[in-house]
Amino acid sequence: xxxxxxxxxxxxxxxxxxxxxxxxxxxxxxxxxxxxxxxxxxxxxxxxxxxxxxxxxxxxxxxxxxxxxxxxxxxxxxxxxxxxxxxxxxxxxxxxxxxxxxxxxxxxxxxxxxxxxxxxxxxxxxxxxxxxxxxxxxxxxxxxxxxxxxxxxxxxxxxxxxxxxxxxxxxxxxxxxxxxxxxxxxxxxxxxxxxxxxxxxxxxxxxxxxxxxxxxxxxxxxxxxxxxxxxxxxxxxx
Length: 238
Ligand SMILES: Cc1cc2nc3c(=O)[nH]c(=O)nc-3n(C[C@H](O)[C@H](O)[C@H](O)COP(=O)(O)O)c2cc1C
Hints:
The protein is α/β, with parallel strands linked by helices. It has helices at residues 19-35, 48-51, 62-73, 90-97, 123-134, 159-179, 190-193, 212-217, 221-224, 226-237; strands at residues 6-11, 38-43, 76-82, 108-115, 138-139, 144-147, 151-152, 155-156, 197-201, 207-211.
């Protein structure tokens, strides 16, 4: 039976309240509304100490494990981070360090960030997009960057930002629709449906089921990353 897509937001701000969380939540809800799905936003701020408690996923708290599993099971992910020293926060990276190496293959990702000014807006393109290229995810072509002046009292106050969110949703909807067509949702999880699997070490002394075809054919994230996935999905959308 067809199911509705679930959009999961991840806010990498270490503070609460947080402009980034407000932005991520708004974008996740907009995508959920446009795709007829549901959304959840995960704030990493409350998980700050727990994420630093162990080097490997198996040693992390049940709360963190749950958050990781929720992100890995999402149909669409909206990620967001404040600019800290011109890149995403260490907290944001720490969380994604624990996501399975092949858990986000072909997964649609919406990139967002906030900053004190527009000076570091390109962190979306130059820091975030390559990270999700490593994961071989389908990063959507339009990212959203907002500066402090786009918010008042931790609410979006800028019509221009709202317009950019609407534009991002409407321009990427055809691509998303082709990718998360409810008729094909059963086949949407590549790892469980389409690909051979092999078992190899996850560096934690344990074993992890992984994507044999990706390992064999995708020698580098550059060759098999978001660019290739985007072209493929765009062709299917046409
Ligand atoms: C440690 C630290 C480093 C920061 N570095 C930058 C930066 O390099 N560029 C920038 O535009 N803003 C920088 N900022 C400002 C934050 O990115 C900005 O206030 C952001 O909107 C905060 O998001 P939040 O409310 O979600 O925490 C920095 C703030 C902090 C606390």
